[in-house]
Amino acid sequence: MPSFKADLGINMGFAVNRYIEPEVWAKVVAEDLGLFKVQFVADLLNPSLPDEIIDSQIKRIKNACANYGIEVESMFTCGYTRINHFLHPDAEARAYWLEWFKKFLEMGARLGAKNSGSHFGIMTFDVFNNRYDELLEAGVTGWQKLSRRAKELGYECLIFEPMSVPREMGNTVAEAKKLMDMVNADAGVPLRCCLDVGHAPDPSERDPYPWIEALGAVSPVVHLQQTVLHKSHHWPFTDEYNKQGIITPEKVVAALKKSGAEKTFFAFEISHREHHDTDFRIIADLKQSADYWKEGLAKCL
Q1: CA separation (Å) from 49 to 30, 88, 106?
Q2: Considering the entire predicted model, what is its pTM?
Q3: pLDDT at position 231, please?
Q4: Residue 67, pLDDT score
Q5: What's the distance, CA 139 to chain centroid?
Q6: Measured between alpha carbons, how far is 122 from 108 in angstroms, rounded to an integer?
């Protein structure tokens, strides 16, 4: 069995509207959490903003990351950008989102990202019921066009996140593989997975560990959250939730090794609702999560 290596970092969704200043989030990630790799998200710097704002922010991000020794490992969409994009029912909207993603890739290349992605796309109910094949073909074409721009920019691959319901795409292992096969039949750089250990997909496939075994080798990024079976809670890895949850470093790494994966970037994707009981414990919860996984990885790598 080949050796397995892993890096631990964080998806920056936790910082949206809370720690948006590059100098602030970089300090939080490095000094409070002891992490040095991030998956940057579009909700912190949307490609639709004016170029002068993007240029100013990228300069600040690069300086802050350099000051704290942080690497932008990858790029991803986030909560506010969880929309239809490549599967939008209107062709002009799909064309807009292709250019939006190209600009997102260009931003990522400036930040040094190795891969970038999103969910595959989301169908409306009308599209899912009446235009499925047509829009699937359009989505595949969109990803293929984006993959060619990714190759020009020096990316290693693109990534998509299998989601939890059929119209959000990839809710079974077979469908996730099919989507990759369709795009990769004519791609610039390959389309790979960004697995989430907590997604609760098709009712027949809700145990996350067979997903990891089946797709871990083609998943350069794995999102981490604590959860229970049949749910996607995005809990932190604190003592309270670890007593209830089914996700452990030992089991995740064992499944990845079984998949044939050689290297994985683990990115925490932990959500705190905007509530007085949780808003003031975000950093403490994330720190406990990071410590828990550092200890767990040390035992099984």
Answers
A1: 27, 21, 14
A2: 0.96
A3: 87
A4: 98
A5: 19
A6: 23
**Residue that has been written with the tokens 């020096």 in this structure:** 154
Element of type H or E holding 208: helix 208-215
Q: Which residues of 4-13 are buried (b: 16+ CB within 10 A; e: fewer)?
A: bebbbbbbbb
Q: Encode pLDDT of 190-236 as tens digits.
A: 999 999 998 878 889 999 999 999 999 999 999 999 999 988 899 99
Burial class of 83 by CB neighbour count within 10 A (0 to 12, 13 to 18, 19+): middle
Average pLDDT, the chain: 96
Question: Please, are residues 230 and 192 in contact by the beta-carbon 8 Å criterion?
Answer: no
Three-state DSSP class for residue 52: helix
Other CB atoms closer than 10 Å to residue 54's CB: what's the count?
18
Task: Select from 86, 101, 120 the least CA-distant residue to 191.
Answer: 120
